[in-house]
Amino acid sequence: MSDFDSLTGEWRARIAAAPDLASLEAERVAALGKQGAVTGLLKTLGGMTPEERQSEGPRIHALREAVTEAIGARKAALEAAELERKLATETLDMTLPMPTGEQGSVHPVSQVMDELAEIFADLGFSVATGPEIEDDWHNFTALNIPESHPARAMHDTFYFGADKDRDGKRMLLRTHTSPVQIRTMQAEKPPLRIIAPGRTYRSDSDATHTPMFHQVEGLVIDRGTHLGHLKWTLETFLKAFFERDDIVLRLRPSYFPFTEPSAEVDVGYTVQNGRRVVGGSDGWMEVLGSGMVHPRVIAACGLDPDEWQGFAFGCGIDRLAMLKYGMDDLRAFFDGDLRWLRHYGFSSLDVPTLSGGVGA
Ligand code: 2U9
């Protein structure tokens, strides 16, 4: 037996005897690592004469091959044994009860957004979304709020410093979800029925205003649309949302640059246990703004206002949630206080459906 045959046999035996993956790795380093024995033999090839290299080279390379192969085989055997051991010892008891108590809850804002999507889907509306970082044209100009318009000041806009849009104007955080409807009117052919729920931003902060708040706006564009369609839609929505039939609406003339005529929408309330509850008509509270879409807005989106009319409305989702679920402090919505979330949050399994009830 040559020296190489016995060397190969020795390495094979050492490798086969490695009891676990860590010991096998130690053998690999001892043979094939930078300072390893087999690597050392390979290095001697450089100092040999061409004749020596021709006779020794194949033997040394064969030794390296044999060691590499033995390591691979032992590794596969050790891994298979480890898997067998795990399969034999690790078991899942499918009869164990569910963990007690749900972890986490659905935030009331998300819950109300889901309720809105469900209610309006039933009326043929789809949900549209768009960017929260907007350009001046989509947030203001297209909505009939030109440069000098006082409504721009009312919106308390957060502007970006350096980023400019195509017209050289500063980019901004959208102050309402209306640019979503502008983008939809540009991208899709009428008739359209959409709601646009989402985050909006205004530089305003007190007990009833937060710099980021949630809005939902609705838009219908069709032929022959009139105020009667608007009032019916809002009444149907509020009845479904508050799950009461005694919803009474009052439309008060108002002004928004993007609608003409415009109306604030009040809903009747009754007082129960010192708290205003939507329904009945002991008093009125404002819940929505609305109106017929201004012909200039329709034209700005590339549609002919003589052919297409529409109505739009907007309201704060946070306020809707407070009215329906009885919270009295808006700022708590954004505190992330687990006790508040456990109290006012919803189960993720409790998906709002019209048949099962949109409330919880
Ligand atoms: C397009 C055309 C018209 C959306 C509208 C209101 C009236 C409104 C406020 C209510 C409370 C915002 O959250 S709030 O401060 N909104 O009163 N919004 S009409 O009108 C549109 C939108 C898009 C293309």
UniProtKB/TrEMBL annotation:
HAMAP family, alphabetized: Phe_tRNA_synth_alpha1
CDD domains for the chain: PheRS_alpha_core
Gene Ontology cellular component terms for the protein in this record: cytoplasm
InterPro entries: aa-tRNA-synth_II (IPR006195), aa-tRNA-synth_II/BPL/LPL (IPR045864), Phe-tRNA-synth_IIc_asu (IPR004529), Phe-tRNA_ligase_II_N (IPR004188), Phe_tRNA_ligase_alpha1_bac (IPR022911), Phenylalanyl-tRNA_Synthase (IPR002319), tRNA-bd_arm (IPR010978)
Location within or outside the cell: Cytoplasm
Gene3D superfamilies per record: Bira Bifunctional Protein, Domain 2
Family classification: Belongs to the class-II aminoacyl-tRNA synthetase family. Phe-tRNA synthetase alpha subunit type 1 subfamily.
Organism: Allosphingosinicella humi
A Gene Ontology biological process term: phenylalanyl-tRNA aminoacylation
Keywords: Aminoacyl-tRNA synthetase, ATP-binding, Cytoplasm, Ligase, Magnesium, Metal-binding, Nucleotide-binding, Protein biosynthesis
Domain Aminoacyl-transfer RNA synthetases class-II family profile: 110-352
PROSITE patterns listed in its UniProt record: AA_TRNA_LIGASE_II
Cofactor binding note of this UniProt entry: Binds 2 magnesium ions per tetramer.
GO molecular function: ATP binding; magnesium ion binding; phenylalanine-tRNA ligase activity; tRNA binding
Main location per the UniProt record: cytoplasm
Subunit structure: Tetramer of two alpha and two beta subunits.
Cofactor section: Mg(2+)
Protein known as: Phenylalanine--tRNA ligase alpha subunit
EC number of this enzyme: 6.1.1.20
Domain of life, source organism: Bacteria
Residues that, per the record, bind Mg(2+): E260
Catalyzed chemical reaction(s): tRNA(Phe) + L-phenylalanine + ATP = L-phenylalanyl-tRNA(Phe) + AMP + diphosphate + H(+)
